[in-house]
């Protein structure tokens, strides 16, 4: 089952994708995570993307499309995936359909995680990420057991460089400009379901799981 999670930064796409991936036994593919890994590894793509990401802007389409196409060649996506962070624009939605069609695949379900600005800013301001395994925490809503250490692997927790106030507001602006056309695209395709992502993470996860079972 091929699932796309849409929503503003801070709606919980990362947290929901990770949990859903475990629940459904599917890989979680996050374009942001792949880009950050490239930045960390100092690859050519990472060097091109870093400055753009720190400004909260979108990395050029052709770079992200190539990266995704390569990722989809991994046989682990045979049964499906949870895609997080792509598409972000209408042209990217078209590209996703093309790349998937070239591999005989198509998107089954698009879940739109709708969240208020107040909750987004609160979530991103306190978000912590494990530098080793990528697990997500929040200083107050989901604190780690030991300060700044991952519960799962003891890796050091850090704050993403683009989770500062200025970059968050730019990311939200970019998101809002693009999202309406994506919603229209997937509504027309009868694939879109909207959920209130301000609710507690466990409640939202159950709702997404119910949708996934209903659609397939
Ligand atoms: P995320 O982890 O999804 O919040 O993404 C972090 C940053 O990576 C974004 O602010 C963009 O700079 C870049 N990025 C992630 N996904 C995409 C995409 N589909 N298209 C362009 N840039 C992206």
Observed structural traits:
single chain; 216 residues; alpha/beta; Rossmann fold; five-stranded parallel beta sheet; three-stranded antiparallel beta sheet; globular; binds adenosine monophosphate
Quickly describe the structure:
The protein is 50% helix and 15% strand. The chain has eight helices and eight strands; from the N terminus they run βαβαααβαβαβββαβα.
Notes on the structure:
This protein is of the alpha/beta class and 216 residues long. It is globular, with a radius of gyration of 16 Å. The strands form two sheets. A five-stranded parallel sheet has the order 2-3-1-4-8. A three-stranded antiparallel sheet has the order 6-5-7. The mean pLDDT is 96. It has a domain at 2-115 and 179-215: 3-Layer(aba) Sandwich (Rossmann fold). It has helices spanning 13-24, 31-41, 44-54, 61-72, 90-102, 117-125, 165-188, 201-215, and strands at residues 2-6, 28-30, 81-84, 109-114, 127-130, 136-138, 157-158, 192-196. The longest helix is centred in the C-terminal third of the chain and has 24 residues, at 165-188. Residues 9, 31-32, 35, 52-53, 56-59, 64, 85-86, 88, 92, 162, 171 line the site of adenosine monophosphate.
């Amino acid at each position: 089952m091929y699932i796309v999670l849409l929503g503003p930064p801070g709606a919980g796409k990362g947290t929901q994708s990770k949990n859903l991936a475990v629940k459904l036994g599917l890989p979680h593919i996050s374009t942001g995570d792949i880009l950050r890994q490239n930045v960390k590894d100092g690859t050519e793509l990472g060097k091109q993307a870093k400055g753009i990401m720190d400004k909260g802007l979108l990395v050029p389409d052709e770079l992200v499309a190539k990266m995704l196409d390569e990722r989809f060649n991994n046989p682990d996506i045979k049964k499906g995936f949870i895609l997080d962070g792509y598409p972000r624009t209408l042209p990217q939605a078209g590209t996703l359909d093309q790349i998937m069609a070239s591999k005989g695949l198509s998107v089954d379900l698009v879940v739109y995680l709708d969240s208020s600005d107040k909750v987004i800013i609160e979530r991103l301001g306190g978000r912590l990420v494990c530098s080793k395994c990528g697990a997500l925490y929040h200083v107050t809503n989901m604190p780690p057991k030991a300060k700044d250490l991952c519960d799962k692997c003891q890796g050091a927790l850090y704050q993403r460089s683009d989770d500062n106030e200025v970059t968050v507001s730019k990311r939200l602006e970019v998101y809002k400009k693009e999202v309406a056309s994506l919603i229209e695209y997937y509504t027309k395709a009868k694939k879109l379901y909207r959920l209130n992502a301000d609710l507690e993470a466990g409640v939202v996860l159950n709702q997404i799981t119910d949708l996934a079972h209903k659609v397939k």
